[in-house]
Amino acid sequence: MDSLLYYLTPNEMDPFYLFWAKQLFISVGIIAGFYLLSRLLQRVLAKVGTRLCAYTETDLDDRILEIVSGPVMVLVNCAGLYFAIKRLPLPERIGVIAAGILFVINIAIITTVAFRIVNEMLERFGDRVAGPEMSRQLMPLIEKLCTIFLIITALIITLKHFNYDILSLVTALGVGSLAIGLAAKDTLANMISGFTLMLDRPFRIGDRIQVASQTGDVVDIGLRSTKIKALDNTFLIIPNADLCNSTVINQAFPDVRGKGRINIGIGYDCDPERAKELLVRTAKSAPNVLAEPAPEAYFMNFGDSALNLSLFFWVADYTHLVKATDQINCALVKCFQDNGVNIPYPTRTVIYEKDTDHAPQD
């Protein structure tokens, strides 16, 4: 440009400056026109969009409208700047660089808007769809995955726009994902099992569950493991894959009521009906036993040295089961003693016969 001005005579430079002044004026007019268009579009969105959003009960569309309205103005202004620069008689390389910068800015704005919309939807519907416990564990991971997906998508679109070969990038991502998957297969198995537990929800935080011989209250359901507080105040950290492949007994489902059972034996000389009546009456007198469903007693079988009976009762909360069992057992000892019902010890009768045929002769 400087060399061109050097060879121009003063008479030739006047039309040259007039030409550039005219082009710059037109470009400035284009930028101003697109700015006014963006302001007009913003007002239209504010008025029409607000009226349309007023017909819905949720305020999610209002938040999305608020998120979109600002970036739309920026995109319109960038479009005006692009057309203004494109019509200037600039060297081709400068035009390509300017167009590339504006394209990257537009992709960054669109990616940011998409992320904010996804984040808003996750915050609004996470607790409603997944529940508070699952939302607390799952939503941060989903947000990170969405962020990574949007960034990778924006990167691929940008590279494709500048005619870069994205096949090698996709292949590298695939090979890297395969290597990571093989190296962390146990961790991935536990994470997938964590998703299964959160979606299937066989138990919730606070439920008392039994896994094999271990019983405790669920404290936390993580992506890799589940933490259980045992009845002896110890912590059990069980991998989610083990929980998914084990039989789990949830004592808090379908409700928190608990059913207790007391097995007791009475002597063969005692009346089973009388003993059953005493069992039911004693259970009803216990403070923690529910009146409905009522306690029930059954004659189960004939034992080696006793008639075996079972008492079934319900408590309002499974945490009261041990206390109610203690109350009933203490009351039963006194009740049976007062009513002449004996609880026999295990006995064994040994009959000894003398062998007279092989006895020594005097």
Automatic annotation (TrEMBL):
Residue intervals passing through the bilayer: 20-37, 97-118, 138-160, 166-184
Main location: membrane
Keywords associated with the record: Cell membrane, Membrane, Transmembrane, Transmembrane helix
Record-annotated Mechanosensitive ion channel MscS C-terminal domain positions: 262-343
Subcellular location, record wording: Cell membrane
Entry superkingdom: Bacteria
Mechanosensitive ion channel transmembrane helices 2/3 domain boundaries: 147-185
One Pfam family hit: MS_channel_2nd
Residue span(s) of domain Mechanosensitive ion channel MscS: 186-251
Membrane topology: Multi-pass membrane protein
A cellular-component GO term for this protein: plasma membrane
A GO MF label: mechanosensitive monoatomic ion channel activity
Sequence similarity: Belongs to the MscS (TC 1.A.23) family.
Record protein name field: Small-conductance mechanosensitive ion channel
The species this protein was found in: Citrifermentans bemidjiense (strain ATCC BAA-1014 / DSM 16622 / JCM 12645 / Bem) (Geobacter bemidjiensis)
Gene field: mscS
